[in-house]
Amino acid sequence: MSAWILASSIKIVSEGFPQVLKIEDSGVYALKLIECHAMRIVDLTKLSEEKIAIIREKLVVDIFSELQ
């Protein structure tokens, strides 16, 4: 399969997904989207900028505590 056929068969869906305003939150946001998708959570309207900031802080604490 050529790269052109593969690229043309990919559909990017951005409707219904809240957009990230700060670029530094994009990684955390991507992780939460993957987690929600894995758990079949469809309603993503609760992912707000404030909640992403809190999730980022919790991830930092979790990662730091694993290194201790």
Write up what this structure looks like.
The chain has one domain (14-67). The model has no long low-confidence stretch (mean pLDDT 78). The longest helix is centred in the last third of the chain and has 19 residues, at 49-67. It has helices at residues 3-8, 26-38, 49-67. 56% of the residues lie in helices and 0% in strands. By secondary structure, the chain is an all-alpha fold.
What are the defining features of this structure?
cysteine-type peptidase activity; mainly alpha; 68 residues; 0% strand; 3 helices; single chain; Peptidase_C48_C
Task: Detail the topology: elements first, then pairings.
Elements: H1 3-8, H2 26-38, H3 49-67
How would you sum up this structure in a few lines?
Residues 13-67 form the Ubiquitin-like protease family profile domain. The protein is mainly α. It has helices at 3-8, 26-38, 49-67.
Summing up helix and strand content along with how strands pair, one would put the structural category as mainly alpha
- Cα end-to-end separation: 47 Å
Overall tally of structural domains: 1
Radius of gyration: 16 Å
Spans of 5+ residues with little confidence (pLDDT < 50)?
none
Instruction: Sketch the major β-sheet.
Output: none
| Helix percentage | 55-70%
Strand content: under 5%
Q: Secondary-structure element sequence? A: HHH
Mean pLDDT: 78
Number of DSSP E strands: 0
Shape: globular
Q: Supply the number of helical segments.
A: 3
